[in-house]
Amino acid sequence: MDRVVRLVIYALLFLGLVVTATPLLWMVSASFMGSGEASTYPPRLLPSAATLDHYVALFSRLNLGRYAFNSALLATAITLVSLFLNSMAGYAFAKLRFTGRDRIFKALLAALVIPVQVTMLPLFLMLKQMGLVNTYWGVLIPGMANIFGIFLIRQYALSIPDSLLDAARIDGASEFRIYWSLVLPLCKPILVTLALFTFMGAWNDFMWPLIVLTDDSMYTLPVALANLLGEHVLDTELMMAGSVLTILPVTMLFIVLQRSYVEGIMMGSLKD
Amino acid sequence: MASVDFEHIDKIYPGGTQAVFDFNLTVADGEALALVGPSGCGKSTLLRLLAGLETATRGTLRIGGQAVNDQPPQRRNVAMVFQDYALYPHMSVRENLGFPLRMQGVLKDEIRRRVDETAELLGLKHLLERKPRQLSGGQRQRVAMGRAVVRQPSVFLMDEPLSNVDAKLRVQIRTEIAALQERLDTTTIYVTHDQVEAMTLGDRVMVLRDGVVQQVASPQKLYDRPANAFVATFLGNPGMNIVATSFAEDENGNAELDLRGQRLPLPATVGRDLHSAKGQGAFIGVRPEALLLTEPGEDSLSLPITVSSVESLGHEQLVYCRLPDPEQPEARALDEAMSDFDATPGQLVARLPATPVCHVGTQLRLAVESWRVHVFDVDGVCRCHGLGASAVPAEVQ
Questions:
Q1: A230–chain B Cβ distance below 8 A for any pair
Q2: Residue in A164, A172, A186 nearest the CB of B74
């Protein structure tokens, strides 16, 4: 009986795997197909003769290098700046004593329920007033801090014993030094998690860069890819090659940091 | 090195809890003061006030004669050893020891030299490259001490540094701390709830209760001449026995105490003082080791008791016994007041030699020499040490 149940479970899991992995694998396969081959009927699973033409075209004709640079620059900047600001705020909410601390934190948490889409228009108008539309700053500034990140770090920082911070104070460390030399190293697992989260979010973000960036040379990969879709609506293989290049860096990053990422998520959930 | 002065310090926490009441104390340069009291008595608060981790609500704090109320912990030049050691977990022992020096801007070579010197002093040389989690409890404790020693502070603060160490190691480290203190001759304030630590590590010991000082004195004086019943029962293991008595008068009209029909003569001045509160009676206190299983001598009292339980400790036995209930209603009323200083009415503990072995239910008479009896008034304040001719009036605190 146990065997049968297990067999059924594995069969279901395998089905799930096929359903999720097939489109991804086909994307990779199609990116190597010759022009038009992906649109034939019945559809082909593997290229008849693998070719790198579309990859070459992306870089030579379509300026993909530039978009990749934009994406990398923005995602890295957002990740670094938001890690810095979120960790400072999270630590302050967890460990420093100041008037209204808990009330401010509760207000922030309450703001979590507001959907991002609702804030897009007012945010855009604000940035426009500041003259930041169609600049890198326009993408960077809204991503510089986020409530979820602050919350995650606060929950983790609560587990740092107060005596450790007091000891550092007595040892002569300034408040910033305590944050930099003590709190940051101790929060490393959660910082790795948050870094991955933020980097993937920023890299894959489509809507906001699309709204703020109008100049073609500033596009990020997802935005450029969507444009590609409009211009080359029939060129499926080119699209697939573009998609492969878009998801490749984050996938690699995830695989490398996977272990600490999962650890971090677990800790975040257990330490509060 | 520096002296420390607390002048009229009050500490009220946000929320209204007052932890320290009008606290005054001077710790001389190079002195070791042990602060002892039950948990929640405010002793850790005093330490944190001095370190700058809390601010005093009222009063002035001085280190080396200079008011430090407004100085942050970073600028007070005090070092503190925490109960949980508070070692930086991601730094090696060497980095932990060097951290306070690095914060002071000491040059690298000098840091290296001083860390090596301290490691040598505390026997940590072979552990310098390890992380705290790779150390045993005792080793961690020593690193915490080292981190305090290395910076040559003007005052050492120790917040129950031995409470996380097992009993055997505690004795060893206690001796080490005492030796270190002797050698460095730095002003030290040592907080503990363990009276043995307090007695062995302090030049003077201060007993604190609910934020109020009970007595400050040398360990021996504290033990021999407690200022009140709380100090008497808190120090010593087991603490002093307290028994309720009532007033009587001798044929000349002098005040005496009546202990289960036995008359205890009081010194004239004490008798007069206590007599003005006549009718309420008084307490007498006797240390467990002052109770003897011998025939009472001329200047002794004799207590009729029934053994209720016996704890054999090998070299001695602790005999718990009961006195008969008092006949006088005043003494019975006093019994109720005794919970205030942690004493059980009518119960006595005697520290007796291992032989002859006492058995539960046996009726005995225990003798006490009258100079070893302390008299406390109804509020628990000690009025005299010894009875009759050998009595010494207690100092008023």
A1: no
A2: A172
